[in-house]
Write a sequence for this structure.
């Protein structure tokens, strides 16, 4: 994505209440329908301590975005939230991480001499 691609940013704040999930999903749909470039950035810095309610919200937002032809990207996700998402099998893109298909620049694989080819 380049600097000219429009991106919608939603600032999520906690604690997450079950009755608010539908409203957040509607905002994601609106952002993608309004030309958000296929990505909605969710600023999760204000969610508070990570828990299953936050995981449920983020899973539903990602599902909503994918159904609308887009995806979400997390901003300001702390290590505890990223670890919890990984524990439950929810792999969401976070800002500042390199996509899995693209190797980081300047990193080369080292080969030990004497290692069998494999």
């Amino acid at each position: 994505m380049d600097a000219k691609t429009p991106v919608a940013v939603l600032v999520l704040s906690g604690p997450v209440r079950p009755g608010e999930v539908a409203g957040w999903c509607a905002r994601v749909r609106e952002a993608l329908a309004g030309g958000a470039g296929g990505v909605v950035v969710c600023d999760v810095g204000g969610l508070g301590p990570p828990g299953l309610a936050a995981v449920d919200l983020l899973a539903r937002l990602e599902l909503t975005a994918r159904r609308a032809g887009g995806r979400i990207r997390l901003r300001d996700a702390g290590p505890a939230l990223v670890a919890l998402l990984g524990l439950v099998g929810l792999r969401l893109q976070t800002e500042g991480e390199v996509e899995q298909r693209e190797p980081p620049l300047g990193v080369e694989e080292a080969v030990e001499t004497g290692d069998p080819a494999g």
User: Anything to note?
Assistant: The mean pLDDT is 84. The helical segments are 21-33, 52-67, 79-87.
